[in-house]
Amino acid sequence: MCVFYTACKVLIEKCSECGQAIPLDAIEPQVSCNGCGHVHALAPGLWRAVTMRSQSPTFLEAPLTAEGLDAPSAALRYSFNGMQVSARYCKVQPRCDACSALLEMDDETHADAPFTISCHSCGVESNFVPAPDWLRDITLNISHIRGGEPDTIGAARVLAVNGEEARPVSLSCPGCGSNLSISSENKRITACEYCHNEFYLPDDVWHRLHPVRKAGAVLIRNRITKESYRSSAVGWVIGTLFVAAFFFGCIALGWALGYDASKHGKMKHLYIFGGGATVLFGAPGIYVVTKMIARAVTFFKKSRKI
User: Fold this and answer.
1) What pTM does this model have?
2) 299, 237 in Cβ contact below 8 A?
3) Which of 156, 186, 194, 190 is nearest to 168 (CA)?
4) Could you state, in order of their start, the residue ranges of all structural domains in the chain?
């Protein structure tokens, strides 16, 4: 068995309703836009595509990235249900969120139970919870995710202000002057319960009830067995060879293979990302196929040591 950690930062580039970017700071089935409050459903297929890069067998060989996501090992874009989603990844050693000191991890324990690691420097605790069942059903190697509580990971969360849940705000109706209690349940354009006139909630009220979601990295704990590693390697190599044989316009960087569904049917829609110089292939030839075969041999040699 082998355990490694990857950091992943995901961003919905544009809300379909207001055009504002939506950073995702947790793996969950839906997210609401900070700007307009529109709720976007995040299909399991999106998270499968995003997280499968972080547990790719190529990441097992990738070096630890000292700069973190400022110098990612891979960066991909996806399209799901009209949403453009971008993601950056790197292989990391877990650090404390408070002081950035390295955490002392014991990877031989912690099977499927939640666990907490205390920072030896500042004492702040980092919580690791098992990946939710719906995520395990669509991924292969993810065992834990850092952050949150077991009953909230994978569910819609209520953001907080100053560590406390946002409380209702009293507001006068601009039409009849009635005193209204506005909570996070209200939509951006809401109606007075007395005169039934609709009005637009001011920015200060809206952001008080819906704090701005900060772009944060999701830390994923990958636990790979020999069997799952070989399965991942076979799929990766076969997929890469198929792509190289039938398409061209690949941009190769060396670590992981990505596919942009939004440009299906066009030439330049297949990417290979990683830590190296960009190489553009007008048409993949013997060089690409040879490199993929060499990578396959490396994968299976590596699997014997897991």
Assistant:
1) 0.58
2) yes
3) 186
4) 2-109+135-141+214-223, 160-209, 227-303
